[in-house]
Amino acid sequence: MCPLIRKNMPSAEPQSTIEETVSTQHCAIVQHMRTEFDLAHREGLFVALAKTFAVPSISEVLVRTGGFEQPDHRLFSTHFGISTLYACGYASSAGQAAITRIKKAHAAPGITNDKLLYVLSLFVNEPLDALARVGPRTATRVEELSMHTFWNHIGQELSITDIPDYDPLRAYRENYEIRNTAYHPNNAFLAERLLSVINPQDPFGARARISTLPKHIRHALGYDLPQ
């Protein structure tokens, strides 16, 4: 496994050097970001899940397959799988086992490539966006490309096709979100399940997390709807 990079690469580095660094050290860079900016990363994963649930065609599949009847189990399994990938890497035996579990959980009819690609784009972009919002700085280009390379490898393992490069993938996320985010009772059902797991001892604190989401996502989850 490549060594951790403790210093950010200056933006003036030649493109060839950036690409070489990303190609050889993206796992270590992503692992370092995960531990160094844990709060921002957890915030990004929360937003990624909320945005996933805000798409009716995705929430319909999740509700229909019953995966969230026991939300603590499903969300723990998701969190554990993602944490394993970050900690051990996608090529390790533990990482491969996590990918197998994720693939099995997403094998239900109706989960098409465009939906999987959107969710993948959320896991690439939302932690980076959260770093800019609640972290000490914005991500460097090396960190952006490393996050993309990391999840691109995982996406290929999950048989996701037509994964674009970093900038087009960000554009895809934005366009898909605009076209497909809308309110549906299934969205609200999943949002309530998510909040019940975040902090069951403090439901008011958990609901405060909703206020940090973009307005159109809150509406799609059933919050702030006109009376």
Detailed description of the structure:
This protein has a domain at 28-180. Helix content is 70%, strand content 0%. It contains 11 helices and no strands. The longest helix is centred in the first third of the chain and has 22 residues, at 15-36. The radius of gyration is 17 Å and the shape is globular. The protein starts with 14 loop residues before the first helix and ends in a 7-residue tail after the last helix. Residues 1-12 have low confidence and may be disordered.
Please identify the structural class as seen in this structure. Answer: mainly alpha
What proportion strand?
under 5%
Biggest sheet architecture: none
Shape summary: globular
Short description:
With 227 residues, this protein is mostly helical. It has eleven helices and no strands. The chain has a domain at 28-180.
Record keyword descriptors for this entry.
11 helices, single chain, mainly alpha, globular, about 230 residues, disordered N terminus
Q: Strands, helices and their partners?
A:
Blueprint: H1 15-36, H2 38-53, H3 56-64, H4 71-88, H5 93-105, H6 113-134, H7 141-157, H8 166-180, H9 185-198, H10 203-210, H11 215-220
Helix pairs in contact: 1-7, 2-6, 3-9, 4-5, 6-7, 6-8
